[in-house]
Write a structure and sequence with these properties.
three-stranded antiparallel beta sheet; alpha/beta; hydrolase
Length: 312
């Protein structure tokens, strides 16, 4: 039976509702020092603003080791009245201390991801720390700029093994929107992950309609997730890219997210636009340009399929 795995348990995909398909409630990386998302009260306020506009769910793509604060997520979900999908996985090697990566490799990356999906996530960023009851509902991995390095291939191979063990969907960070073909070749072509379990992220950062149609033809989900303070450079091309895909018959594979990774992006406590922008500004623009049915697909129907799995 297909279910969406949230931090409070598995739910019917039809119950997921209006979804921000790629965002971050908590995030901390050395490259963004001083702009950490690490305030539970601010996260609750942001979720409240999103819910006030009709939002029902957020997929947090923050993987292990980047301040995802997994121990805070169940209480936050209850307090905000929102479904939260959390991620296991790893980002690019540059985000981690070499000794941490070596420790995770020695213990087995696939086994680590599988345990977080099936048993419960570590509540902090210490691999020796306690494990909570909240389970991850997806695996986050990352490519490099126009290619895949050894770390990316190793992590994706582990993610594929964890997928085959659990059924979990895999979301991919594409550096500046690139290397998506390489990722599909590896995950689907070589590692036999079904394309319906592959979520290609950040495609808005490489606004090439021809490439987008090629990726869509594979059957994978395509995530456009950039109207945040850090990732807004190609916002002006977004509607054109969505319209092109929809006109080619690929509207059923599009996901929309905010990808807010810095504290200044929050609408409630920073300079915005934050989570509310998706429903306050972007959804009405999509509906005006492509119709209400397309907007509902992007925010409701598509995420209910993308984040669902026949969990094993």
């Amino acid at each position: 039976m297909m279910r969406v795995r949230t931090v409070l348990g598995d739910i019917d995909p039809a119950a997921l509702g209006v979804t921000d398909s790629h965002d971050h409630l908590f995030f901390a990386a050395p490259a963004l020092a001083g702009q950490e998302l690490d305030d539970p009260a601010a996260a609750e306020a942001e979720l409240g603003a999103f819910r006030g506009l009709g939002g029902a769910a957020v997929a947090q793509w923050t993987p292990f080791g980047l301040g995802r604060m997994a121990g805070e997520l169940p209480a936050l979900s209850r307090a905000a009245g929102m479904h939260l999908v959390a991620a296991t996985g790893l980002h690019q090697a540059a985000h981690y201390a070499p000794e941490l990566l070596e420790r995770l490799r020695s213990d087995g990356l696939a086994e680590f991801f599988t345990a977080e999906l099936a048993e419960g996530m570590l509540v902090g960023d210490d691999p020796d720390g306690p494990r909570g009851t909240a389970r991850a509902g997806m695996i986050k991995v990352a490519g490099m700029f126009h290619g895949l390095d050894g770390h990316a291939r190793e992590v994706m191979a582990a993610a594929a093994r964890a997928h085959h063990a659990t059924g979990a969907p895999i979301g991919i960070h594409h550096e500046m929107g690139t290397a998506a073909v390489d990722v599909l070749t590896l995950l689907h072509g070589e590692l036999e992950v079904p394309v319906t379990s592959i979520l290609l992220g950040h495609l808005n950062r490489f606004p090439d309609p021809g490439l987008h149609r090629e990726l869509a033809a594979s059957g994978a989900f395509l995530a456009f997730d950039g109207p945040s303070r850090a990732h807004h450079a190609t916002d002006w091309r977004l509607l054109d890219c969505l319209a092109d895909l929809a006109s080619a018959g690929y509207g059923g594979q599009i996901l929309i997210g905010g990808d807010n990774v810095v504290a200044s992006s929050r609408a409630s406590t920073g300079g915005g636009p934050g989570l509310p922008y998706l429903l306050r500004v972007l959804r009405p623009r999509i509906a005006a340009a492509l119709g209400e049915a397309a907007a509902d697909a992007f925010f409701v129907a598509n995420p209910s399929r993308a984040f669902a799995a026949d969990w094993r």
